[in-house]
Design brief:
The complex is a heterodimer of chains A (261) and B (263). Chain A is 73% helix and 0% strand. With 261 residues, chain A is mainly alpha-helical. Chain B has helices at 2-22, 25-50, 61-82, 88-94, 98-101, 107-113, 120-138, 144-170, 172-175, 179-188, 201-210, 218-225, 231-234, 236-256. Classes of the chains: A mainly alpha (261), B mainly alpha (263).
Chain lengths: 261, 263
């Protein structure tokens, strides 16, 4: 536990050392949310039956919650993992007592906490006030579910970072990941606008468990048993991905060759 | 004379750069797929939205696709030829930018042209295909003069976006790490790929006069979509010139006060 706190704190200090970046990041997100709001406002301005799919308030609520979660969960840790692999710095992590998997997870948490203050909290305050969301029993489930989402995303990022053992750059695969997750997890367009068959298919993929489960836990009118079942399925998804990432890491690490001396 | 010398240097840099990029063919293909997928998600979003509405801000589906394609082509040209802007923050932080100040050529030219990004060609092809598709459905008049206008306006739109990105990068001379500023301009560019008519007046003013991203997609596109010479589409040319000189001034001002980081 002591090591975890040290690694999280260290990563936060690095992120916060450049105040200008922090401010521009916040400003950039405000602009992006503003653009999204205006775009959908424009779409609904000449309503011609689009409200039958989802009304304007529901679109903004779902999109902003998904975008807020995306801001919180987007740590780009795969880039740092890739850099460690390509530069040979990974050997440094293999020689210390704390496991590589844990160190990178602690760094992810540190970055996420910074994201929380620069992106997510301002947006969530806006959402909670505008949509008058009550802090009932669903709220702790929502918070817990976000932590599971963080584990799911971390394992996906780790697997992508590990592809650096086979390629020279991860720009492409990381971009594919970002685009697919943003679209299929509902951070670009609410999933209700996609064809029904496709919506049903997505329920059986990990994309459902990244943003949609926390959002449903907070906003849906499902009873507590149904919500607990959603959470359970999300935990199972997190466990499967954790096992998968660890297996891939165990195989990949055998391929390490460090040049230089 | 200077232009001839810089053209010769550019061709040599291009040659070396293409050779180095082609060494990693797998990365090129994966990156190209990534870039196309990113654009397709925006395109699918528009498609699914237009399944439920006939017009977006008074603009039809094919008009919107045309604006989107114009925007995609102009930003692709930036991606191919000026993508090195994204790496400048590393040079500022590590102090390695000094290398660009010690050569007997213009530092801005040297830095911006040092690297090209071949994966941008995939996005360019997608943009051209979308323009052909939307143009065919709109029955656009592709006369010789219109094609000349298209090339000029595309180059101006690319220049506008590149100038804005260069100004963002040049702020690194003052704040050391300009990554988030560059990222901010990059994220804001999406204002240019939708019909500006959907935004309120304050936003229209900002993306026309303050951060003129409307000239990267929407305004120049109206020249072809409306098939009339309109004032705002022609303003793309002077805006490109003003921003080109503005970026030069800001870069030089920053360069004069640049002190490399590190020891």
């Amino acid at each position: 536990m002591g090591n975890a706190v040290k690694f999280i704190r260290l990563n936060m200090m690095i992120k916060l050392s450049r105040k200008e970046s922090f401010i521009f990041s916040l400003f950039g997100n405000i602009i992006f949310f503003f653009l999204t709001y205006q775009l959908w406002h424009g779409i609904y301005a000449g309503d011609s039956g689009i409200s039958s799919v989802l009304n304007f308030e529901a679109v903004i609520l779902k999109l902003f919650l998904a975008m807020g979660l995306a801001s919180f969960l987007n740590t780009n840790i795969e880039w740092f993992i890739s850099r460690d692999i390509l530069s040979g710095n990974i050997q440094k992590y293999l020689l210390i007592p704390e496991k590589f998997y844990n160190v990178k997870f602690f760094e992810t948490i540190g970055t996420s906490i910074c994201n929380l203050f620069s992106n997510t909290i301002p947006l969530f305050i806006f959402i909670f006030i505008k949509f008058k969301i009550e802090l009932n029993l669903s709220f702790p489930l929502f918070l817990f579910s976000i932590l599971i989402s963080l584990i799911i995303i971390y394992n996906i990022d780790l697997i992508i970072g590990l592809t650096s053992f086979h390629t020279e750059a991860i720009w492409g695969i990381s971009t594919i990941k970002t685009a697919i997750i943003a679209f299929l997890a509902g951070a670009v367009i609410p999933l209700e606008f996609l064809p029904l068959g496709f919506q049903n298919f997505l329920k059986y993929t990990p994309f459902e468990y990244i943003y949609q489960v926390p959002i449903k836990l907070l906003t849906s009118e499902a009873n507590i048993n149904e919500k607990m079942m959603m959470l359970l399925m999300q935990i199972i998804c997190g466990l499967i991905l954790t096992a998968l990432a660890k297996i891939i890491f165990a195989h990949s690490v055998k391929k390490i060759t460090i040049n230089g001396g | 004379m200077a232009i001839k010398r810089y053209a010769s240097i550019y061709l040599k840099l291009l040659n070396v750069n293409i050779k180095s990029k082609l060494e990693f063919a797998a990365d090129f293909w994966i990156s190209s797929i990534g870039l196309i997928l990113t654009n397709l998600t925006s395109l699918f979003t528009l498609y699914f939205i237009f399944q439920h509405i006939p017009m977006l801000g008074g603009v039809s589906y094919y008009d919107t696709i045309f604006i989107f394609s114009f925007f995609t082509i102009s930003t692709s040209l930036h991606q191919i030829f000026f993508d090195n802007i994204w790496s400048i923050w590393i040079h500022f932080i590590e102090g390695s930018f000094i290398k660009y100040c010690l050569r007997p050529i213009d530092s801005m030219f040297y830095y911006l042209t040092e690297s090209i990004d071949p994966k941008g060609f995939s996005q360019l092809i997608l943009g051209i295909a979308l323009m052909a598709y939307s143009g065919a459905n709109l029955n656009l008049n592709w006369s010789f003069i219109n094609i000349i206008f298209l090339v000029v306006l595309l180059l101006c739109a690319t220049s506008i976006y590149t100038s804005l990105m260069t100004i963002a990068a040049a702020l690194g001379f003052w704040i050391t790490d300009p990554f988030e500023v560059i990222s901010l301009v990059n994220r804001s560019k999406d204002f240019g790929k939708y019909p500006i008519t959907i935004f309120n007046n304050a936003t229209k003013f900002i993306i026309t006069f303050v951060l003129p991203l409307g000239f990267v997609g929407f305004y120049p596109s109206t020249f072809f979509v409306k098939d009339t010479i309109n004032f705002m589409s022609l303003m793309t040319v002077p805006v490109a010139l003003i921003l080109f000189f503005a970026q030069r001034l800001i870069w030089k001002a920053g360069l004069n006060r640049y002190i490399p980081a590190g020891s």
